[in-house]
Amino acid sequence: MAAPVALTIFLLILLPAHHALATAAGDAHPGYADTETDTCGPALDLGGSSSSAGAAGRRYGPGLEEYGGGRIVDITHAFRPGMPAYAPGATVGPIVRLKESMKNGSDYNLSELSMECHIGTHVDAPGHFNQAHFAAGLDVDTLDLEVLNGPALLVDVPRHTNITAEAMESLNIPKGVRRVLFRTLNTDRGLMWKEGGDMSYVGFTEDGAQWLVDNTDIKLVGLDYLSIASFDHACSAHVVFLKNADIILVEHLKLEYVETGLYMLHCLPLRLVGSDGSPIRCILIK
Ligand SMILES: *[C@@H]1O[C@H](CO)[C@@H](O)[C@H](O)[C@H]1NC(C)=O
Ligand SMILES: *[C@@H]1O[C@H](CO)[C@@H](O)[C@H](O)[C@H]1NC(C)=O
Ligand SMILES: *[C@@H]1O[C@H](CO)[C@@H](O)[C@H](O)[C@H]1NC(C)=O
């Protein structure tokens, strides 16, 4: 979960009028300037041809993002201004900006990165909701790469409910499964493509988190919107999970059109010393 963000800068809104807004972007980083129409719209298969890479092939839109003829699926959201942030209606502001630019006479273009550590596809470190773990130095740089990389199950959560104890039990996840990506109603509702945070998203309730801790071997928990925990249990569910310093939470995954089943998951956070969170790149390999 990210701290509430009160940014009201709408530099770029993907749907539906991004062309109109492209000019308003003005000095925006060139990487933000051209979200092509052909990468937006529902159910667009962006996969297969990385030959269309470059500005025209920018992979911003909803849809499956495949490489290598479908062998690799990217389940990371592009970090872009305008994506939802964790507060009702909140959006993320500019993320990278040109600090030096050739257009302004510099010999090179040099971008600068500035963002909260809990926006976009990211990982929570134990210290995010646990002061003892934070004080003990359990930052993102201490996360176990062995947990972040290995066989993972992608499951569909029943759509009529948050992830309660009952919902968890109904999933019948076998003992021994250590990494699970939970796809929910959030994906069906296309929440990640809506403007502004929607706090009616689905996530774990406190009893759902407790059930997972008590009854499964799951050490990596992934979910498809801003927070692993439902809004009403934003703190309590995080507290239950992160009390266990060996459980890793990955939030904001892009799970559209990916078939359920078993994959090799690879997730690599940045080595941000002292941070309770980090952007992360996650891919699935078939
Ligand atoms: C380039 O120069 C203009 C005019 O001084 C300024 O407004 C703009 O922010 C500069 N951009 C970069 C990337 O340096
Ligand atoms: C440098 O940035 C400018 C925008 O200021 C862009 O037009 C140009 O293509 C960039 N050059 C390179 C080499 O990326
Ligand atoms: C999940 O819980 C949130 C509040 O935390 C609520 O707004 C939402 O309607 C619930 N969703 C479902 C499907 O029960």
What would your notes on this structure say?
The chain is an alpha+beta fold and 286 residues long. It has a single domain, classed as 3-Layer(bba) Sandwich (Glucose Oxidase, domain 1). Helix content is 17%, strand content 20%. The strands form two sheets. Strands 5-9-8-7-6-10-11 form a seven-stranded mixed beta barrel. The protein has a two-stranded antiparallel sheet with strand order 3-4. It is globular and about 60 Å long. The protein starts with 17 loop residues before the first helix and ends with a strand. It binds 2-acetamido-2-deoxy-beta-D-glucopyranose (3 copies). Keywords: Extracellular matrix, Secreted, Signal, Stress response. One of its GO terms (biological process) is L-tryptophan catabolic process to kynurenine. Pfam families: Cyclase (PF04199). Its main location: secreted.
- CATH superfamily caption: Putative cyclase
The 3D shape can be described as globular
Helical segment count = 8
The biggest sheet amounts to: 7 strands, mixed, barrel
Distance between the termini: 29 Å
H/E element order: HHEEEEEHHEHEHHEHEEE
Q: Beta-strand percentage?
A: 15-25%
CATH third-tier fold name = Glucose Oxidase, domain 1
CATH architecture: 3-Layer(bba) Sandwich
Low-confidence stretches: 1-26, 33-54
Each distinct ligand: 2-acetamido-2-deoxy-beta-D-glucopyranose
